[in-house]
Amino acid sequence: MLPCQDNFTTTFSTYPEMLSHHERLSKESVWRRCKVSELHVEPLDLTSALYGNLSEFVAGTSNEAVSDTAENLGLALRVGGDLYPIRMTAYKTLLDRAKISGTALPKLKRKELADVLNACLAVHSSEALLLVRDEKVSATHSGDAKDYSVLPIDELLHTLEKNMESRFPGYQFETGYADHAFTSGCWTFPAQKEDLLGTYAKTLAAKGQVKAANRMVPGIRFLTSDTGVASAKVCAMIMGTQHPIHIGSCISVDHRLQKKVDDFGKELDQLFAQFCDSVAKLQTLLEIELDYPINAMTRICKKFSLPKKEALEAIAMFQTSYGGGTATAHDVFMALQEIPWLMKLHNYPEAKMLTVEENMARALSIKWSEYDLAKAVSY
Fold it and tell me: Is residue 193 located within the same domain as residue 122?
């Protein structure tokens, strides 16, 4: 799999690998400003005159990048005399610049779609900010400084590393991931287990869950995107379990309103306090008794649109294991964690899994009595 291909993904087993990858991207990527009206879309499918005509494209564009585009989005973008293939990640922001939307658009032939986009792009006087990365246009953001702020990922990583060195000595890198839409990385804080999870772990142990309490380690997930799919954020996680448990967003900085990497650093100062708040919410679930835990779990799965196949499997597993009668909201929340684990077994895309984990974390803040009802619900 080549970096120019839309489905390119990579994982990192060490932090230096992850940092090096993003330093390369920062060095080689081009952020280009222009008028929206200067953008001109051209068809690039297998029947296009551009297909196989590599000389039409900006220097450095490979046959692989052109062929991959023809098999995916099937469009190219000309700006200032330069022609680039367009990556799938740029499609939504391109529609945003044209100020159009609709489910019918992807069904159009590429020539027809290009014509519609060009007619709309031509009437706008606003500015666009293009991200050209790995041979393709990866995003077409708004060029207004208040609408999109570039937060280089390598600089965000340096800032995060500096904060962890100061506040969480002994931190350990677990794993990293990157594709053309977003990047993520996980760290654990074994030396801070007592500070962050001490009371919660003791409560678990007192309720007979000694092994689970001993395995748990506090950690974080860093997540960001240069293509508009995520803010720069750090989420509280519990590691050491079958699958990492997302227990809420700690800090977040949007790519808007002239935000800088320094703003991300300032938000990180709240990381410890926000992490403790997330753990406190999780611990509270131990005190919430549910009369109809299966019904509650089913309603939550439906409310948060969790994937049906995996949700039903997780519900069945919980129904078999908990033995009937009442259960706590904590029991149900932990049973929900089988869903991302099953998704991983079923090879779901990383982005889908992260979205599901974030949705499940919202269960920490719901009013459980609204879901703990005698009436069964189908899913």
Answer: no
Phi, psi (rounded to 5 degrees) for 183: -135, 155
Q: How far apart are CA 128 and CA 143, in angstroms?
A: 4
Could you tell me if 209 and 247 lie in one domain?
yes
Is residue 140 helix, strand or coil?
strand
Give the CA angle between residues 364, 207, 239 to the nearest 5°.
50
Same domain? 180 vs 272? yes
Phi/psi for 108 (5° steps) reads -70, 150
The radius of gyration computed from the CA coordinates of the chain, to the nearest angstrom, equals: 23
Q: Is 244 left (phi over 0), alpha (psi -120 to 50) or beta?
A: beta
Strands 232-239 and 245-253: antiparallel
Residue 126 near residue 142, CB atoms below 8 Å: yes
Assess if residue 20 is contained within a domain. Answer: no
Q: What is the pTM of this model?
A: 0.86
The values of phi and psi at residue 90, to 5°, are: -90, -10
Tens digit of pLDDT at every position of the chain (379 positions): 888 999 999 999 999 999 999 999 999 999 999 999 999 999 999 888 888 888 889 998 999 999 999 999 999 999 988 999 999 999 999 999 999 988 889 888 999 999 999 999 998 888 899 999 999 999 999 877 677 888 999 999 999 999 899 889 999 999 999 999 999 999 999 999 988 888 988 887 887 788 878 888 999 999 999 988 788 989 889 888 878 889 887 788 888 878 889 898 888 888 888 888 888 898 999 889 998 899 999 999 998 989 999 999 999 888 888 777 778 999 999 999 999 999 988 888 888 888 888 888 888 888 989 888 877 777 7
Q: Which domain holds residue 175?
A: 153-284
Residues 181 and 244 grouped into a single domain? yes
Pair 158, 222 in one domain:
yes
Q: Are the C-beta atoms of residues 116 and 100 closer than 8 Å to each other?
A: yes
- 151 within 8 A of 261, measured Cβ to Cβ: yes
* Rounded-to-integer distance, Cα 85 and Cα 54, Å: 11
Beta strands in 45-121 (DSSP E): 75-79, 82-85
Task: Tell me the HSE value of 346 on the side-chain side, using a 13 A CA sphere.
Answer: 15
12 domain residue, yes or no? no
> What DSSP letter does each residue of 195-212 carry, written as one string?
HHHHHHHHHHHHTT-HHH
